[in-house]
Design a protein that fits this description.
The chain is an alpha+beta fold. The protein is built from ten helices and 50 strands. Helices cover 15% and strands 34% of the residues.
Length: 812
């Protein structure tokens, strides 16, 4: 009886202990804000639309709003800068398609596709002829491509259930819409290499006197076992699947293929393959590689080049040798590429930075020079006319970008080529928009060109009053502009796509302050857009958001730099009453005052709030100055010399304006930001007394840990030690005397924002008696994706500003 009684007592004690521990865990576990916030977070995202290349129909694609923590906890291998879901053999994903619907653009009828229950698909892709589309279904153990019939409204799996999209897309169409290319892992590859019980060798790195200024990266290869795992998961065999008879043909041999593209005539493939030895200082996209041309059977036709590992590429530079390879459109098989003429180093003073070259099949002749560019190559738009294209180049020092009209059939001289567009890259008011493309039935995607001179441009339409998206016709010969559509300030409406090749109508996405985004059709009559016809009618996700008042406010920095931001008033705002206010910002760099002061806000959009948005605070009695402009203006090389001064001036101007408007109490203003915005928050708390408290998410606070540059800073730590130390909040942790909440993803892969950054700043503040709280979210990256993490982050932010902002006592 004595032993039995003792046993019962011990069990009772254990139950009491576990009960107490469970209460502590419940209190300190994942938390949620109030139900009305949770309901908004759980509201599905509005669908994306994908118009059939032939017009008449479009896909409405609904996808997951967020993942679950169990999704993030999925077994993952972190290799060569990639996070690989090992049970799926695919890169980590942030969303899955959960519903597909077919919209008839003429009748407005919407029908659902049949999808397997609990299926998880990727985004669909139409065939060039528009008769069907593909989507990848992701499954543990083996993912597979599905072929969908838009007439029968159902699909079926095709090809091996072994998709390997670690280095490639999960599939791509042939130009004739009759075949599908699928990268797969080998059916006989066996199980993954076992990790050694003890290290196979010490970790050894060696430098041999060459300059290698590499910025900070995460998830790099570190051991011999890492290299074996990388080869195991990344090695892919290209399969060509014939839709007519289901025949599967292997193209080439399994390898570490990172790029694979067909020539327009389908006779050749351009292939990029990674080579050993693998680097342990750079991600896979800077590994040594070889560039090859294969025939349609997968046999080697020509080895174009072997590119060395890119660990010696200068800061903001490019690799030497062939780069940016592509097939010329509207030619059977002409290869184009670029080469640096400045050694890949932007610091070298040269007349020309890059040269464009080409080589025709059978690739045995002499390469031909197309054009030498005075600035760095920045892109190329093929027009719907053989050999005609717009080529873009960009200067990093002046931020200037130009587009020149060139003829690829001859050698062009840059100074003699017609410049079509030219502006400061950040000058939004002068942005003419983007060329509108269309997919031809032969699979080639080209910029629309009418009558050999007219192109279509769609753009954001930035103005001093806000954004006015547009669709224009533009004459390349005369510069004449024909306005087809311009959104007014009463609504925010953007061009999506033409509804057919005839270009007699187009689809738009439209929203306003009271109505969420829906899709509309506008017919073009006499060169002008007609009235919008409603295609979808998705209701407002949260009726209370319709009542949120917002306005564009403008003000000036003390040196005359014009600033702006969108002020969101608290729900049920009462004029004359002061509210706790939050400034949300992200500092950006500009070369001149003119571009720095431009308006980058839109008040005519629906107040869609999702994820961990700071705008949730307006539902809890706060005012929010969202996207407050806090520019850093100056020469890109030295602008950071006055970073703190300009940061302070921008914040002071925002605070002064909020107080002037009567919305804010100067002692109840907080500041918040994410990434570089959190770097701003910590610096403002260290160097000013403008804010009562701050929230900093996923930030970097010690710039000595990013010694080879950060953001727009191109000098190294050893070239600008004073700047690195001055800009590091960690160096001034003893001066952070306002409460600071720091939140960080435990698996943040973003270069420079290692989680250790937040941990070290928290330790420094704690060591000086400051007030801080550090929340590290398991499995999360730079942004937060799991529902549990999102809700917990919101609860933490609400509690922090409620305690130190809304309910704080005024200073005496």
């Amino acid at each position: 009886m004595g032993k039995e009684l003792l046993t019962r007592l011990l069990i009772c004690l254990l139950i009491i202990t576990l009960s107490a521990e469970s209460k502590i865990m419940a209190r300190e576990g994942y938390r949620q804000p109030e139900k009305k916030i949770v309901d908004i977070v759980d509201t599905p995202n509005p669908p994306q639309i994908s118009v059939n290349p032939n017009g008449k129909t479009a896909l409405l694609v609904e996808y997951t709003t967020q993942l679950l923590l169990e999704d993030l906890a999925e077994p993952t291998a972190k290799l060569a800068g990639i996070r690989i879901l090992t049970r799926y053999n695919i890169p980590k994903r942030s969303y899955f398609v959960k519903r597909l619907r077919l919209l008839n653009l003429e009748t407005k009828e919407i029908k659902d596709f049949e999808l397997p229950q609990t299926s998880r698909f990727g985004f669909p892709t139409w065939s060039p002829d528009g008769k069907r589309f593909l989507a990848a279904e992701y499954k543990a153990g083996g993912s597979q491509v599905w072929l969908f019939d838009p007439v029968k409204l159902r699909g079926k799996p095709i090809g091996p259930a072994r998709i390997n999209s670690v280095l490639l897309n999960p599939f791509w169409w042939s130009k004739d819409s009759q075949k599908v290319f699928i990268p797969v892992w080998g059916e006989k590859r066996g199980k993954e290499p076992d990790a050694p019980l003890i290290p196979e060798a010490p970790e050894i790195q060696e430098t041999t006197g060459k300059v290698s200024q590499v910025r900070t990266y995460q998830d790099l290869l570190q051991t011999n076992h890492d290299e074996k795992l990388f080869e195991y998961y990344a090695t892919a065999q290209i399969i060509r699947y014939n839709l007519a008879d289901g025949r599967q043909t292997k193209i080439g041999k399994p390898d570490l293929i990172t790029s694979f593209s067909s020539s327009p005539d389908g006779k050749y493939y351009l292939v990029k393959i990674l080579e050993r030895p693998f680097s342990r200082t750079v991600p896979h996209y800077r590994f040594a590689n070889r560039l090859e041309i294969w025939n349609d059977k997968g046999k080697l036709v020509k080895e174009l080049a072997k590119i060395p590992v890119g660990d010696e590429i200068p800061i903001e530079g490019v690799q030497v040798g062939m780069r940016n390879l592509f097939w010329q459109r509207l030619k059977p098989s002409t290869l184009c590429w670029f080469e640096a003429l400045d050694g890949g180093d932007p610091n070298n003073k040269v007349e020309f930075r890059d040269v464009m070259k080409s080589l025709d099949a059978p690739f045995t002749g002499k390469e031909r020079e197309i054009i030498r560019l005075p600035m760095r190559y920045a892109g190329l738009d093929f027009l719907d006319k053989e050999n005609i294209a717009l080529i873009w180049d960009y200067d990093r020092d002046t931020r200037w970008i130009k587009a020149r009209l060139i003829d690829l059939s001859k050698t062009n001289v840059a100074s003699e080529s017609r410049v079509i567009f030219s502006r400061n890259y950040y000058d939004q008011y002068k942005d003419e928009g983007n060329l509108v493309y269309y997919a031809k039935p032969d699979g080639q995607t080209l910029a629309i060109l009418e009558d050999d001179q007219w192109v279509y441009l769609d753009g954001k339409g930035a103005t001093p009053e806000g954004y006015k998206p547009f669709l224009h016709r533009y004459n390349l010969e005369t510069g004449e502009k024909q306005e087809i559509f311009v959104s007014g300030l009463e609504a925010f409406e953007t061009f999506v796509e033409f509804s057919s090749h005839a270009r007699k109508a187009f689809v738009t996405a439209r929203e306003d302050e009271e109505n969420p985004r829906n899709f509309y059709l506008r017919k073009i009559v006499n060169g002008k857009a007609g009235a919008p016809t409603e295609l979808t009618n998705y209701p407002a996700p949260a009726p209370e958001l319709n009542k949120v008042k917002k306005e564009l406010i403008k003000y000036e920095r003390n040196d005359g730099v014009p600033l702006s931001g969108t002020l969101y008033y608290p729900l049920n705002y009462k004029p004359g009453k002061k509210y706790p206010t939050i400034v949300w910002a992200y500092p950006r760099e500009y070369t001149d005052v003119k571009t720095a002061g431009q308006v980058r806000s839109a008040t005519n959009r629906y107040a869609r709030i999702s994820g961990t948005s700071i705008l949730f605070f307006v539902l809890r009695g706060y005012a929010v100055l969202n996207n407050a402009e806090i520019p850093i203006v100056g020469d890109p090389l030295t602008a950071n010399d006055t970073f703190i001064e300009q940061l302070t001036a921008g914040a002071q101007a925002a605070v002064d304006k909020l107080v002037e408007l009567g919305i804010a109490d100067p002692e109840k203003i907080g500041v918040a930001g994410h990434s570089y915005g959190s770097f701003m928050v910590a610096n403002l708390l260290a160097h000013t007394d403008l804010f009562a408290a701050g929230i900093a998410r996923s930030g970097a606070y010690n710039r000595t840990l990013t010694p080879f540059g950060f953001q727009g800073e191109r000098r190294t730590f050893w070239e600008a030690q004073d700047v690195y130390m001055k800009l590091s909040p960690f160096s001034h942790a003893n001066k952070i005397d306002e409460p600071l909440l720091m939140i960080h993803g435990a698996d943040d892969p973003n270069p420079g924002t290692f989680p250790i950054q937040s941990k070290r700043l928290f330790g420094a503040i704690k060591g000086h008696g400051g007030i801080a709280r550090l929340v590290v979210l398991p499995y999360e990256g730079h942004g937060y994706e799991a529902r549990e993490s999102i809700l917990h982050t919101l609860a933490e932010m609400f509690d922090w500003f409620d305690k130190y902002l809304k309910n704080s006592k005024k200073k005496k």
